[in-house]
Each structure stands twice: as structure tokens, then as C-alpha cells.
Design the sequence.
């Protein structure tokens, strides 16, 4: 398999989200981020992290679909990648929540306790809160506010897989992805305000188009095999120069889907010494992402930390839990990825 920097990028994208969440969870304004100010109030760290996740996901999911033996094989691998880690964090939340629970209603008689796991496992129309938990925290409206993106991710899996099932021609698929990408870019640019007013199945029209455009962009470049482009280094330089230029001109909003998608994939596909082998220790990015928010809320509940203390402690603890989740939950689940495929390969776990 070609060496790349994707594991390192995912790790950092997850940390960007944790760092960004430190601001509202400690009672600070999200716009006070140094990176937001540095980019002339155009790029916020959690947005950069999420956009990066969806770009890489679009690229890798397209390749996964092409490699999969059949559609059952594809969805089984996606289920193993998403749900075991999610289920464990939800179970731990419910088991440990009594230590931070403050309500006149007994914990086990609170109906929201019983619905928390099944509703969040459904991915859509999530339940963010259990009444009585973190109610005195600066940000008291969610136990795990990071879960909202998973339904978008899974929806894009479904849509992309449907496209490849219906159309079994790479050139036609690439042409359609170009069309979808351009239409979605235009919709985002010209109708971003109206998109905020659309909501279906617990998903916002704004986020669906924004994140979906990044996902489709990643899939498009996978279909075009960007990894085989002859002048990748030149394209990387040009994309970097254009990105700096649009940031300076306050035009990032108009060009971000094209420039960021291209730039992140080109950076990911350029192997760097030590960085490209980062994933040898495992992939803690998903664990960091799903554990970071409740870890930060818990730290605020017990210690009422300032911004810097919360940021440093939550990053360190989230990394620890991310690796625990990978080695003891996620990687173990992936041992069963060939369950529905006849194979002589033995997966050691």
C-alpha cells in the first residue's frame, strides 16, 4: 500500500476539534481562537478539522467501495468502523453519568437515561442531553456534542455507494461527481443563508451541503486517481499560493471547497519521513473525536478549569482514550471485517 500522511492528518483534525471545543466548554467565545484571528476570521479550527475529515473520508470511502467484494462487504466494514467505538462511549457515558447527575428524579427513573443509547446509536435525531447532567457547566446543553457529524458521514456512504451500484462506469461516475461537486459548490455559495432553514432527519441543509461538498470533492479526486497525477508537487504549490491569496482577500468562503480539498489530499499523498509511519501505533482519531467532548465536560464539572488548563488536559486525556479505544475496541472489531467473505487469511488480533 502506498505510504501517505493520512493517519497523521486525521490525528490532527481530531485534535483541532478538541482544541476548538475548549473555548465554549470553558465559557469562552469561539471566535477568540488565535487561528480564527490569524486567518482573518475565516477559518475556525473545528471547522478545519471536520472539513478535513470529510475530504479524507470521501477519498478513502470511494477507494473502499471499489475494493469491496460486494455491497454487504462494504457496509459491514463501515459498521465495524463506526458502531463499536460509538456503542462503548455511549455505554460508558450512561454508566458514569450518576457521578455528575444532579436532579430530584432518581437516575434510573429518568426516561432520558433509557433513551440515550438507542437514540444516539440510530445516528439521526440524536439525544444530546440527559436532564440533570452537566446542568451547571458553562455549556450545559450537551453531554457529547461531537456526535452530530456521524449521521452526515453515514448518509454520504449510502449516497456514494448507491451511485457506484447504479453506474458501473468510472468515467461516467467521475463526470457525475464533477457535476454534483459544482452544483453543491454553487448551492453553498449562493444559498448558504437559506440552507440554514432546511432540516430533514435531524440534519441541517447547511451542514449537509458544506460537508457533502468536501466529501464529494474527495471522492471525485479518488475517481480521477489524483495519486497518479504527474505534476502533484506543482499543483500543491499552486493550491497553497491560491489559498493564501483568497485568505488575504477574504474570499475563502467562495473557494474553500476546491482549494482545501485539493490541498489536504496533496499533503496527505506526499509521504514525509516519520510522519507517513505515524499510523504504526494505531489510529486514535475516531476515539479522540468521540471521547473529547464528554472528557472536557467532566473536567469542567469537577474542576471548573480555565481555557488553557482545559485545553491542555483534555487534549492529553483524549489522546490516551483515543489509543485505548483503537487498541481495545476498534481494532478488535475490525478483526471481523472478512466475516462474510470466504478467505484463507487469518486476522491476528
Sequence:
Amino acid at each position: 500500500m502506498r505510504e501517505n500522511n493520512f493517519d497523521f492528518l486525521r490525528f490532527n483534525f481530531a485534535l483541532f476539534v478538541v482544541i476548538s471545543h475548549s473555548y465554549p466548554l470553558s465559557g469562552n467565545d469561539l471566535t477568540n481562537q488565535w487561528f480564527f484571528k490569524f486567518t482573518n476570521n475565516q477559518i475556525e479550527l473545528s471547522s478545519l478539522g471536520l472539513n478535513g475529515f470529510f475530504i479524507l473520508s470521501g477519498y478513502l470511502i470511494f477507494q473502499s467501495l471499489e475494493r469491496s467484494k460486494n455491497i454487504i462487504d462494504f457496509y459491514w466494514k463501515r459498521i465495524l468502523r463506526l458502531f463499536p467505538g460509538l456503542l462503548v462511549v455511549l455505554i460508558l457515558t450512561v454508566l458514569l453519568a450518576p457521578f455528575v447527575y444532579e436532579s430530584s428524579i432518581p437516575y434510573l427513573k429518568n426516561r432520558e437515561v433509557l433513551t440515550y443509547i438507542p437514540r444516539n446509536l440510530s445516528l439521526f435525531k440524536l439525544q444530546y442531553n440527559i436532564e440533570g447532567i452537566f446542568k451547571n457547566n458553562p455549556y450545559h446543553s450537551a453531554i457529547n456534542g461531537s456526535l452530530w457529524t456521524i449521521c452526515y458521514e453515514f448518509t454520504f456512504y449510502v449516497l456514494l455507494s448507491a451511485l457506484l451500484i447504479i453506474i458501473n462506469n468510472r468515467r461516467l461516475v467521475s463526470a457525475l461527481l464533477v457535476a454534483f461537486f459544482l452544483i453543491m459548490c454553487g448551492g453553498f455559495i449562493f444559498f448558504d443563508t437559506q440552507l440554514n432553514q432546511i432540516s430533514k432527519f435531524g440534519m441541517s441543509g447547511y451542514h449537509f451541503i458544506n460537508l457533502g461538498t468536501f466529501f464529494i470533492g474527495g471522492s471525485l479526486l479518488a475517481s480521477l486517481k489524483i495519486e497518479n497525477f504527474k505534476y502533484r508537487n506543482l499543483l500543491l504549490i499552486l493550491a497553497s499560493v491560491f489559498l493564501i491569496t483568497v485568505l488575504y482577500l477574504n474570499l475563502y468562503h467562495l473557494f474553500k471547497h476546491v482549494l482545501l480539498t485539493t490541498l489536504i489530499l496533496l499533503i496527505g499523498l506526499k509521504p514525509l519521513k516519520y510522519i507517513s509511519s505515524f499510523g504504526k501505533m494505531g489510529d486514535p482519531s475516531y476515539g479522540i473525536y468521540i471521547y473529547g467532548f464528554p472528557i472536557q465536560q467532566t473536567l469542567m464539572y469537577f474542576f471548573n478549569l480555565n481555557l488553557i488548563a482545559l485545553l491542555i488536559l483534555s487534549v492529553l486525556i483524549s489522546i490516551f482514550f483515543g489509543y485505548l479505544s483503537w487498541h481495545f475496541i476498534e481494532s478488535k472489531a475490525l478483526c471481523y471485517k472478512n466475516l462474510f467473505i470466504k478467505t484463507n487469511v487469518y486476522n491476528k488480533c
Remarks:
- The radius of gyration is 21 Å.
- The chain has twelve helices and two strands.
- Strands lie at 199-200, 203-204.
